[in-house]
Amino acid sequence: MKAPLKWLREYVELPAKTADLAKLLTHSGTKAEGIQQKNGTDVLSLEITTNRPDCLSLLGIAAEIGAVTHRRVTAPKVTVPKALTKNLQPLHIEIQDNKACPRYLGRVFDKVEVRPSPEWLVRYLAWMDQKPINNVVDVTNFCLYEMGQPLHAFDYDKLKGRRIVVRRAKKGEKILAIDGNEYALDERILVIADAERPVAIAGIMGGKDTEVTERTKRVVLESAEFDPILVRRASRLLKLSSESSYRFERTVDPRRVREASDRAAALFCELAGAVIASHLKETGKGKPPKGVWIRLRLPRLNETLGHKIPTAKIVKILSYLGFKVKRVSKKEIKAKTLLQRKDIRREIDLVEEIIRIYGFDRIPETIPATRHEIRADDSEKEYRLLRQLRESLVSQGLYEAVTLSLVSERVLKNARLDKLEFIRVANPLSAEQEILRPSGLPGLLGAIAHNVNRKEKDIGFFEIAKRYLGSNEENVLSIAVTGLVNASWETKQTSSVYYLKGIVENVFELLRKKAPRWTEENTGPSFDGGLALTADDARAGMLGAVHADVAREWDIRQPVFFAEIDLDKVLALPERRRVFSELGKYPPVRRDIAFVSASDKTVAEIAELMKAAGAPHLAKAVLFDQYAGSSIPAGKRSLAFSLEYHKKEGTFTDEEIRVLHTRVGDALRSKLGAELR
Fold this sequence. Notes:
Helix content is 30%, strand content 26%.
């Protein structure tokens, strides 16, 4: 909205400096986007928010300036000449859709002299970037900018039947608008018609057939209210907008319908030598609504703002904003709503009005008082554990990733996760963000692909985030590794299932949980085999090699290994008790044992079996060799363990060691069917 300062000074006193005025308006919520020098005056460019259609007029902006500067606004005095007593021109106005057009005012003018506008009017319109047309049309535009009420002038002699009919368009009807374009109409569009055809698109643009020209002698002036939704819909359907439609779409001030008509009537008589040739015809069931009183509790106001504003100041601010104010008690006042401010209906709306005029910068900065006990609750403890977990994973060579919680269905199909029960977003911003992720796999594959494509082929990521499976929201730790994990001149170690398994076991160690159990399992079509992680007899995660075809969907041509742990389940497990054991005074005895057994038992299960058989002296059972080849029967493998026996008092005799070692071997034979070597 343009706001020429010379024009505004006709209604309100302005600050001496334009920059000061711009700052005041911006701080009160009407942003000044720029200042332009045009035809001898500064012109402010103001951003008018959708809830402030009252500021789409210079009188509205003047009222806003008056409120922030505490100055009174003077509206133009209008004296409408009396209508002729004889030779009145007939005009019949009919509204067929009262909801679409609550009020319609019409006046007829005779002896109109259509000519170029005077210099002052041309200059005023130029400030608004409005080209002059003729004195009649320019007056309607002048009133639109001054009061915010769109007007339209018809050539009275071109109206068939001397009738104005406000109705819905008929299917197949067309109109040639004053912009020179023809528009096809239908029942969704409100039109102004005469006895035979549409002569204007209501609230948007007039028709060419009835426009005012140099030959026009008699004019009908329209001032009306139209349904904002209907005007907006017609504007979108026809792809046609105007200064009028911009205001009607946001609602017009009901007071200005009559006031703008009177203002234009006086200017027609002054600038075009016109005489009023009919009484004012007002039709419609709509009447300006009455204002209602809103209760404002002063303690509530001060509590909301966190600052006490003197009552006299509150009353003064509301009065300058145009509200009628009355005091109810020391703790309460009432303010009557304004017809032009449809956004003010509640107590909190008044609070907002007061603070924006009073000034947000005048509210002192304070630290809110709080009362709390300093204690390590469960959430704080969990936060510390997760922070330690992050630090531990970083120390093991991984990078933390943060990926999007929303993924596309295409990505899930590429990861072969589309068969999972996932949650679809009702109104996604895009097809790439339509599903809440059921796994961290797609995000980490994307992170790896981004790095691999930039020649960073040895990389590992972890992410602590949420996944959404069915109706469950779960906190999970996702880990993905690829390439070399330990590369130096001395050794090179590639990422593998076993490497990743070690990282997961370190997680349990850090969180002080009992070591997990691993079982081979088909972990789904996304993986080429895998392991299931069980903790306290409940499945708490998985680990596996990402299927090569899945990796290729991300253009990754090297093995990728992925693990996902349900942190909610793991953190809920009981902590492993720390028990102090005195260091042995006597040296341990080490013995090796080698055997062939079925491959269906894990190394951990075999180690536990041997420890149980050699209890309480067998402290360690560590695998140091494994073989499965041509000399070993199918379905079996050869294992070799190093066993370490401890004794608290004294040293072992050879016989004691022989008995213990034999007991371990017997247990392997009887429970596993092992063949000792």
